[in-house]
Amino acid sequence: MYRKISDSWLKHWDFILLDLIVLQAAYVLSCLIWNGQNPYQNELYLNMALIICLADICTTFFTEGYKGIMRRGYLQEFKAVFRHMCWILFLQIAYLFLSKRSSEFSRMVLIGYVILGVLFLYGGRVLWKRFLLRKGKLVYSKRSVLLVTNSARAERVAATVLNHTFNEIEVPGIVLVDKDDLVGTRIHGLEIVATFSEILDYIQTRWVDGILLSVSRDIHLPQNFVADCVEMGVTVHEELTMESANTKNQRLDRVGGFIVLSTNIRIATQKQMFMKRALDICGGLVGMLGTGIITLFLAPAIYLASPGPIFFSQMRVGKNGRKFKIYKFRSMYMDAEERKKELMEKNEMQGFMFKMDADPRIIGSGPDGTRHGLGWFIRKTSLDEFPQFWNVLKGEMSLVGTRPPTVDEWEQYGHHHRARMATKPGLTGMWQVSGRSDITDFEEVVRLDKEYIENWSFGLDLRILFKTVLVVLRGSGSK
């Protein structure tokens, strides 16, 4: 799913949280210095602490004070902080006036709070921006955008994008639509990575969230090019000077300094993605608490049944080709991956996933794969999945999404299979609650995953989570 970056106040949730924290710190320090007491122990001052939070959120929502925050210089940032603080102060004074308690509140505390608030806000924002720019945002908060242009425009497009990435866009390279003999050369440090005829194959095996399409009007691309990219789950950003394809799920956006028309398999607003991420964080915290408790009992049992690591980790492929390490409680013997090659001929899954009804690699299985013992219990109850709540908290996975393939499975995908990677992988998903391991046709998995992505809503996630609980409690379809 493509996130429409329209609600800038939600886009910069990290700055919002930082401001709330530093404003409370400034308020507490002002109370301690000029009033000599903890503000949270006095009803009026406690109410004011809550008003500060509400005033900050209201100011953020109505003034869009975070718009362009990563591009602002020191003086511009100070002006933005000062305006932000003035609005908060206005709302505080309005509260004191309307509640008729202004005479009870220390003016020195209020003045000191404003001074400290400006200093703390400014210092916090500057330091956080410096950290983000120096270290780079986490890879999962970036977008990988491939540039597709013609030779006459290439230098201008590359220069414009590089000057407007603001550490939010990763540019893997350039594809020229009119010249094949320049592959391997560089333009402004960006490599020309493929010919236009190879572009779908290139996208298939790399981390690419979207393509920025900017070509001259006299160059005509294949009619189905945009549709083919969208079918793979890739967002197509067409510069508005071009003649754009008229399809559904299109939005105006700004990418790398260009005004573009973005087309994708499904477009979600920033508010929708904020709700999904909030659900992931809440579920992840509860899940990690459960993981800690389960570990106390499961760790010694796993070690006694099969000496070795308690946790199993493996490289998987996430949203649009990002690679990450997934974690599970180990339910298989230590040589499971080596034995998988020997068992491939017994694979019951039609396609690129591996499933066996009687898998001898699972801890406690008989020589013929008889389903008994600790490993089968862990799998039947889905306890092996609990450590993945850590992946959810890190933002690599979601509570609901698509199953993350292994690297070798990913490398065998056809173009239409890639569409299922247009969203974050999940602990559960549409096909899991439609039969979990009972589905043996990979094309059916792809169909259900695409159905989930195209029809995604917050309510759909809640329904899938509810169905998942019922499926796990019944132990149906688990292998």
Name the features.
15 strands, 46% helix, nine-stranded mixed beta sheet, Rossmann fold, 3 domains, 16 helices, flat, single chain, 14% strand, 479 residues, two-stranded parallel sheet, alpha/beta
Structure description:
This protein is an alpha/beta fold and 479 residues long. It has 3 domains: 134 residues, no CATH class; 126 residues, NAD(P)-binding Rossmann-like Domain (Rossmann fold); 204 residues, no CATH class. Helix content is 46%, strand content 14%. The strands form 4 sheets. Strands 2, 3, 4, 5, 6, 7, 8, 9 and 10 form a 9-stranded mixed beta sheet that branches. The radius of gyration is 27 Å and the shape is flat.
Topology diagram in text:
Elements: E1 2-4, H1 8-11, H2 13-34, H3 43-63, H4 74-98, H5 107-135, E2 143-149, H6 154-162, E3 169-170, E4 174-176, E5 186-187, E6 190-195, H7 199-204, E7 210-214, H8 225-231, E8 235-239, E9 250-255, E10 258-263, E11 267-269, H9 270-305, E12 311-317, E13 323-329, H10 336-343, H11 374-380, H12 388-394, E14 398-400, H13 407-410, E15 426-428, H14 430-433, H15 442-454, H16 458-474
Parallel strand pairs: 1-11, 2-3, 2-4, 2-7, 4-6, 7-8, 14-15
Antiparallel strand pairs: 5-6, 8-10, 9-10, 12-13
Helix pairs in contact: 2-3, 2-5, 3-4, 4-5, 9-12
